[in-house]
Amino acid sequence: MGGQDSLMQEKLNIAVFVDYDNIEIGLKSTLRREFDVSLPLEALKERGDIVAKFAYANWSRQELATRQMAENAVQMVQRNPSPRGDKNGADINLALDALEMAFTHEHVNAFAIVSGDSDFIPLVNKLKEYGKTVYVVGGKAFTSTILQQNCHEFISYESLLNDGSSSRAPAGQPVERQRAVGVEDGMGQQQSGGRPQRGERRDQRARPAPLELSLAMPLVERALQVLERRSVQAQLGLLKSTMLQLDSTFSERAYGCGSFSEFVEKLKKADYVNVSGTGGRYVIERKGGTGKTDVAAPKPESALPHLRDVLENHRLELEDGVTAEDLAGWMNTETKSFEPKVYGFQEFTEFLNFAQDKTVVRVEPDQERGTVLVYLGAEFYPPAPPPEPEEPETSEYDEKQPIVAGQPSMVAPTPPVEEPKPPKKPRAPRKRTAKSDGDKPARKRAPRKKPQG
User: Fold this and answer.
1) Which of 114, 121, 278, 363 could anchor a disulfide with 137, C-beta 3.0 to 4.6 Å?
2) Residue 441's closest CA among 450, 432, 449?
3) Which CATH number do you get for residue 139?
4) What is the pLDDT of residue 44?
């Protein structure tokens, strides 16, 4: 924890890398907004000095987006896709450039990845190995939850929006991008296409409604316990850094607070914690005895069984994909007014993003309708079991083949052929001589006497 504290207190020189295509598609399909690069840049300036800014895209197709990039001094890196459509080309270029900067620019000690692509998880882990602070900026509704949880701090794009920001447009642009919509650009020239503005066809979504304060209490309690075990007073900055260390996705803005001090004030008014001190030097302590903090908030995983039941009931409709709005309607009618906020999700699309990482659903953006299409996840298509080994066919003639020396066999290796041994020659009879028996003379047989009659 001490290393984390010194890391937070050290002056941060931040290099920003923007995966433009990913963040643009994600915002259009979930928040129905155009990407405004000034919002994440302003949020990162509160955390350190921005020393480098890069954005990766095929800029020949993003003529109006180049204007806001130039106004914010973002260096645009041109990515020329191959004829085969290398969709991960920008990811590879961004990762290589970020690692090169980590090796060659020692003064850059923090990196901000503006993207929701889970392909950047190895890059985030590698930068952390080299002692770099890593921020990830993306929408909660489309950024991989694994990517959110493995960086030092996740900054949600939703938290950067003002409550009345639906009328705010990116710098140098109208409310909605005017690409191929038949309106005049800044030079007074008419662009091709006669469709109405997308701002008339669909409205932009403002920041989602805040979560209940009670949902933050498990994390606050855990952080206060950590500081108590270390015998350290829980002041504002130390408490927030501890909470971010335990959960990098925490943001006081998700609970309707503009600053962490305002968040603590709300906790105090709701009688969740004890706060002492004035002038910003607050010391936060846990409430003694039993109280509101003893009530456990539902975990996000506990919402998945409700979703599985609805998906099973509408399995046929989901084969071709349904919009998130249709699925949310089924959830409300079939699960007694399902409310994502009870489980810690500000919006239903954020819940779907969580379910996608759990392989319950598969989500694909639909830019034309400004929504996402939902399909059944891999959980509903388990892999086929391995085929059972086939038994060899047998017949009545299958018998154990005898093994004969010198004969080939199908069930045993062919034995080597033994060459017949030559027959033994009979020994010649030995001739007896006078010297054969110890030089004894041979006895002569006495003649047979005839019986006398």
Assistant:
1) 114
2) 432
3) 3.40.50.1010
4) 95
